[in-house]
Amino acid sequence: MDFFNLHTHQFTNQETILELVNQYPNEFDVSIPYYSIGIHPWYINEERLNDDLQIIVNKLQNHNCLAIGECGLDKRIEVPIAVQEKVFETQLMLAQKNNKPVVIHCVAAFQEVITIKKRLKITVPMIIHGFSKNSQVAKELINNGFYISFGKYLLQNPEMETVFKTIPDNRFFLETDTISESIEAVYALAAQYKDTTIENLKTTLNDNFKRVFELNIL
Fold first, then answer.
1. pLDDT tens digit string along 40-92?
2. From CA 183, how far away is CA 144, in angstroms rounded?
3. Nearest to 31 by CA among 64, 70, 74
4. Which of 49, 52, 168, 190 is most solvent-facing, going by the fewest CB within 10 Å?
5. Closest by Cα among 137, 145, 103, 138 to 121
6. What is the pTM of this model?
7. In angstroms, rounded to a whole number, what is the distance separating the alpha carbons of residues 111 and 128?
8. Contacts with 187 (C-beta within 8 Å, 6 or more apart), sequence order
């Protein structure tokens, strides 16, 4: 496979792309070959929380479950942050126990996510998806051991070029999330910003994939 899409909600089933498709416990599609599964802060339902967590526990045993997520914190929604933190921390501990990377949704809560990582002593890779902030936030995340994934905002906001250029080659991924643009388009722009070829970028991201997911399927 030539391309790795770190986070998408749209399975396109192309032979040249390994897609890490986001799945929810209560809307699971068994036909998707590789996926992450988690409780998104937007969709926390305390009445079915235990059932959702049990589904995640079960799915984590499957070899094609590559990560937990997306999960995380979002200060711009009505779900109380204390509830979000409890659900997030539970999933982080599951990731740690099962040695799975974590795909993270974070809105206006980067300090909280960093603090939780330190307090729980999480050592599995944690990847902030859909990054849209400045170089200072990116540097703090990198310094605290996070990976950063770029997609929609890289394509839509020219100011992200400066941020993206500062990210070490061994600490980033690319994604499409919910946008209609292809992962190939994201790779093309990323290669341009990094002043490299798409082939070199493929090698970089394949190496990152193997290191983080501890698999050799690309």
1. 999 999 999 999 999 999 999 999 999 999 999 999 999 999 999 999 999 99
2. 27
3. 64
4. 168
5. 145
6. 0.96
7. 13
8. 3, 174, 198, 201, 202
Q: Is the distance from CB of 92 to CB of 116 less than 8 angstroms?
A: yes
User: Tokens 């929810």 identify what position?
Assistant: 24
Residue whose structure tokens are 């590789």:
34
Cβ atoms 107, 76 nearer than 8 A: yes
Under DSSP, the state recorded for 171 is G
Residues facing residue 183 across a β-bridge: none
Nearest Cα residue to 22 out of 174, 205, 177:
177
* Closest-CA residue to 152 (of 56, 29, 10): 10
Q: How far apart are CA 65 and CA 63, in angstroms?
A: 6
* E strand map for the chain: 3-8, 17-23, 35-37, 65-74, 102-107, 126-128, 147-150, 172-174
First to last CA, the chain: 5
SS3 (DSSP) at 127? strand
Amino acid at position 75, single letter: K
- Helices 135-143 and 110-120 sit at what angle, rounded to 10 degrees? 0
> Which residue, chain included where needed, has tokens 């093309």?
188
